[in-house]
Amino acid sequence: MSQERIHVNPLHRRAGSGLFVDKHRIPDRGMDPLTAYHVVSDETMLDGNARLNLATFVTTWMDEEAQRLYAEAVDKNMIDKDEYPQTAAIETYCQRMIAELWHAPDAAAAPATSTIGSSEACMLAGIALKRRWQEKRRAAGQDASRPNLVMSSAVQVCWEKFCNYFEVEARYVPVSAEHPALDGALLEQYVDENTIGVVAILGVTYTGAYEPVAEIAAVLDAIAAEHGHDVPIHVDAASGGMVAPFLDPDLEWDFRVARVASVNTSGHKYGLVYPGLGWVVWRDAEALPESMVFRVSYLGGDMPTLALNFSRPGAQVLLQFYLFLRLGRDGYAEVQGTSRAVARYLADGIGGMEPFALISDGSTIPVFAWRLVDGHTANWTLYDLSDRLRMRGWLVPAYPLPDDMAEITVQRIVIRNGVTMDLAEALLATIREEVAYLDALTSPLPDRTASPAFRH
């Protein structure tokens, strides 16, 4: 019975409120708002402590001024540019700031839009690649029915969704110990006349690695010269797009690379904004087919829209602009640099422990991963360590690497703003204690963890 109903705390019950709330049916009568508030608040008590969640890339803390701005703007609808013209103007400010940050040839003319997150941004970028390829093929009188997209087997699941939803063949270049990320080495085997684009990742979800965009472009240049396949690049910079410009300004991964047609990032990851906000920018108008832009008049004016969603929150766009003003380039560099320093410190500490070998070290985005040393133990796995850390309040996921390296299980830590050196010290101490416990086992744990944890 308790699984079907929520017990209302007697201290929060008001006149007319019942003893229980049905979990699966809207009640016939409402209740006092304070009682309803406490019911919902109590139901979320077992949610984790966001600052100890080292699995997610998503921002979990913003300052008091941002909280106030968020509350003031929570009702704004980003799509309704006629009612909220200044919110629309601020979206444009942010688009141009980001286009300039990523070295668009003409930041003021580079098409761009905010999105609910990087997944939507990737969908839009993928659609643009497909449409542009189809238009060129049809103009040349060629078949346009078999598009494919080339990417690493370590891509985030949104690219699998794109290929599934929009009927594009996904061609996955396998990762290996020799080629742990897409680096151009095998591209010639996967690219052909039906390739709409190549996806390069700036901050691989599994390890944090930057795929070398300039090297990938050089290989595509050679393929174009030899075979005539002129293939553009989309850079999925969901995480790295708001890290590399501030910490690695000389790294050429963005529109400085001529073959890059579009770039996306998550404002709600290292853009430091609450969920959900993404951004996508195209090099120029030629990279974005006009057929993707819709114009509507029923909100009060002739408004072009470019998005999969229609109504969506405008508050996060204002928060992004607030952070650009609040931090500036120096501030972003300081925040991201601090996160990277914490990641490097933790990586050194964990890599120095006998059972572990680092897969990455936090020197790109503030993310690193490690595996168990071969032969260290038959009594426990990284899944067991993940469980032990969860019991202590820390969320540190364990999971297999992509298909061609799926026999290797790793753990990964994501450092975000708010994870301090003090917390890092506490985590290292906890890991040492739990490793000592696990190493003291004289036989395998009786109930081995079998399923990988959520890792993005």
Report on the structure:
With 456 residues, the protein is α/β, with parallel strands linked by helices. Helix content is 34%, strand content 15%. It has three domains: 1-47, no CATH class; 66-323, Type I PLP-dependent aspartate aminotransferase-like (Major domain) (Aspartate Aminotransferase, domain 2), CATH 3.40.640.10; 336-439, Alpha-Beta Complex (Aspartate Aminotransferase, domain 1), CATH 3.90.1150. Helix 5 links the parallel strand 4 (148-152) and strand 5 (169-173). The longest helix is centred in the last third of the chain and has 37 residues, at 315-351. It is globular and about 75 Å long. 40% of the residues are buried.
Give a brief outline of the structure.
With 456 residues, the chain is α/β, with parallel strands linked by helices. It is built from ten helices and 15 strands.
